[in-house]
Structure formats: structure tokens, C-alpha cells
């Protein structure tokens, strides 16, 4: 699977940076005064800051659509597609999408925007803040193929945020089983909530048991821990720590983003 992964990410150990879209129409935090045009301007600003810092890829997500849903509002999905379409001509790196927490909607959005990859909870059974959570990886992959997007890479987050796994196997055992049964393009390891780092020992266990599948740290990556994390993983997904004051809900801080990527480049060079 690493050869397939490397077709999208030509840089060794890529940094995928989040463009967190503001609260969308239909969600409780949507700001009517700002409106969709304001959301687009914020997304365009974050995209510019991240690409100017030379991140390797970006991912668009509806992180602000709290409380989250397991089947998203149709308005959220259509607005995300519209917004990505509005900034598409400014995207000059590979990009992905993530519609929290709805695998089918995520696949649909990726197909309509020509995204390179998706991130979601595709497997497992969880007790979560959103209720009982049992995604269907087989259904999601078949839906992807039915849309003519076999090339669309699927990144499986196997340690769901805001949830407790009802599967008592270790995370490494779950990763091994997922690779065998579900053919993921990458496995993601997360902390308990957005911005919280995954446990390094768990990441190491996962990378050891599935050496031929890319493993990425999905949450809590920052300037201070990225060197240690990149020693173990095949890349990282980063959001909160590149924001103003490291606050998930604020805009990307261009200086923080550039400082982070400067360190990553140094790490790659020395490696």
C-alpha cells in the first residue's frame, strides 16, 4: 500500500494540514451575519497561509459543525462542496476531505470535488458522544468504486475521537485486522479528542505490526513533538497547533505554520 500512498505524496513523511471550515448552514454555531461568503474567505485565507508555508497537502473538514452527527445535514455536505469549488483554483497541493462523522458523505464530497484522499472512521464499534457508532467500511468502499473513484485513497482512523471503542483488542491488533479485512491506504492513530496527541507507544506498536501500510499520527502533532513522531510514522496530520495561539477554533497563524514546516524540512534533511 505504500506504493499507492507515494503516488499522491511524493515527499517523504508528508505533512497534511487542516483547513477547518467554519460552522456551516444548518449547524448550531453557524453565523448568519458572516454567511457563506465569510466562510469562504476564511477558508481561502487558511489555505493560502498553509500553502505559503509549504505544507505537503491540505484537508478540508467541518470541525466546527458541533455537535457532530453520524449522518450529516444535507446542507453541510452541499455547502462544503460549494466552498471547496470556490477555492479549488487556489489549491496547488494534493487535498483530502473529511465530513465528520459520516463515511458515505465523505466519499460523496471527495468524488464531487475530485479530492485525492479521505479520512474517516470506517471500522469499529464505539460508544460515543454522538451515540452508538458502527460504521460500515465495506459499504463505503463499494460506494467509492460505484462513483468511479477507485483511485481515491481511504485513510482509516482506528482510534475514534470523542468515543470509547467497544473492541477490547489492542490498537495494534485492530490495525492488523483492519489492514487484512478492509484494504486501507493508510492507518491513522489519534488522541482522545481534537488536538490531543496519540500515545507514542501505541503508534510504535501499530507501525511495527503493519510495516507495509502507511501509518500517520492524526491528532496532537506540534512543533515540540513532531521530530519524535516522524521517527516512527509515515507522516502527520496537523490542525490545531498551526492556529493562532494553538486554538483549534481560530485561523491559521502564518508564522506558526512556517516555523513548523521549517523544522520538518530540517528533520527530513538530517534523516
Short description:
By secondary structure, this protein is α/β, with parallel strands linked by helices.
Layout of helices and strands:
Blueprint: H1 2-8, E1 15-20, H2 35-52, E2 57-61, H3 74-87, E3 95-98, H4 103-113, E4 117-120, E5 126-128, E6 131-133, H5 137-146, E7 153-157, E8 163-165, H6 171-182, E9 186-189, H7 200-209, E10 215-217, H8 226-232, E11 236-238, H9 254-270
In helices, the fraction of residues equals 25-40%
The overall pLDDT, averaged over residues, is 97
Looking at how many chains there are and whether they match, the oligomeric state comes to single chain
**How many DSSP helices?**
9
SSE pattern, N- to C-terminal: HEHEHEHEEEHEEHEHEHEH
How far apart, in Å, are the first and last alpha carbons? 23 Å
Beta-strand percentage?
A: 15-25%
Rg estimate, integer Å? 17 Å
Largest sheet: 8 strands, parallel
Low-confidence stretches: none
Structural class by SSE content? alpha/beta
Q: What is the overall shape?
A: globular
Sheet with the most strands: spatial strand order: 10-9-7-4-3-2-1-11
How many individual β-strands? 11
Amino acid at each position: 500500500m505504500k506504493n499507492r500512498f507515494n503516488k499522491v505524496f511524493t515527499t517523504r513523511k508528508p505533512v497534511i494540514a487542516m483547513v477547518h471550515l467554519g460552522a456551516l448552514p444548518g449547524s448550531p454555531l453557524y453565523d448568519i451575519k458572516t454567511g457563506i461568503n465569510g466562510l469562504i474567505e476564511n477558508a481561502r485565507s487558511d489555505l493560502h497561509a498553509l500553502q505559503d508555508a509549504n505544507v505537503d497537502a491540505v484537508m478540508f473538514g467541518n470541525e466546527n459543525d458541533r455537535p457532530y452527527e453520524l449522518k450529516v445535514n444535507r446542507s453541510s455536505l452541499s455547502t462544503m462542496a460549494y466552498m471547496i469549488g470556490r477555492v479549488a483554483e487556489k489549491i496547488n497541493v494534493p487535498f483530502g476531505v473529511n465530513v465528520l462523522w459520516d463515511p458515505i458523505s465523505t466519499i460523496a464530497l471527495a468524488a464531487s470535488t475530485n479530492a485525492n484522499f479521505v479520512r474517516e472512521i470506517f471500522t469499529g464499534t464505539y460508544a460515543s458522544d454522538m451515540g452508538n457508532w458502527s460504521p460500515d467500511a465495506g459499504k463505503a468502499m463499494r460506494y467509492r468504486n460505484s462513483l468511479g473513484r477507485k483511485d481515491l485513497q481511504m485513510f482509516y482512523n482506528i482510534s475514534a475521537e470523542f468515543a470509547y471503542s467497544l473492541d477490547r483488542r489492542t490498537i495494534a491488533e485492530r490495525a492488523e485486522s483492519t489492514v487484512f479485512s478492509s484494504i486501507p491506504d493508510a492507518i491513522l492513530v489519534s488522541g482522545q479528542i481534537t488536538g490531543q496527541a496519540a500515545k507514542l507507544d501505541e503508534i510504535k506498536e501499530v507501525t511495527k505490526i503493519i510495516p507495509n501500510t502507511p501509518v500517520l499520527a492524526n491528532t496532537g502533532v506540534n512543533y515540540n513533538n513532531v521530530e519524535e513522531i516522524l521517527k516512527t510514522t509515515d507522516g502527520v496530520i496537523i490542525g490545531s497547533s498551526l492556529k493562532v495561539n494553538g486554538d483549534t477554533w481560530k485561523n491559521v497563524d502564518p508564522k506558526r505554520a512556517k516555523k513548523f514546516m521549517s523544522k520538518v524540512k530540517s528533520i527530513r534533511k538530517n534523516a
